[in-house]
Amino acid sequence: MIELSKLDNMFHCVGINLNDTFTYACGDQENMDWDDFILLLPLIDEHGYDITTAYASLIRGRDPIPPLVTDKFKECKKLLLQKLREDDDFMIDHRDDILK
Predict the structure, then answer these.
(1) Higher pLDDT, 10 or 35
(2) What is the mean pLDDT of the chain?
(3) Residue 88 falls within a domain, yes or no?
(4) What's the total number of domains in the chain?
(5) What residues contact 59, with CB distance under 8 A and at least 6 apart?
């Protein structure tokens, strides 16, 4: 397996697959900054799809389609908001819009 540090100079973002997430029957994607991806890896391992959906939800300023707004999604969204308030390096490009 390649060490993540060796990929730093190769990638600027990671694409989050959001097909059928914010709209029914659609293809969709949100880019996650590489630095955010590295910071979120432990939460991605623990929460999977819900944490990446919550990330996209914060950037877009709206929740996904109703079947995906589960208790786990809500918990993930709270975790990300807490991380955003505590870590100045997290979601740098979006933090002002989210925290206003």
Answers:
(1) 35
(2) 88
(3) yes
(4) 1
(5) 30, 91, 94, 98
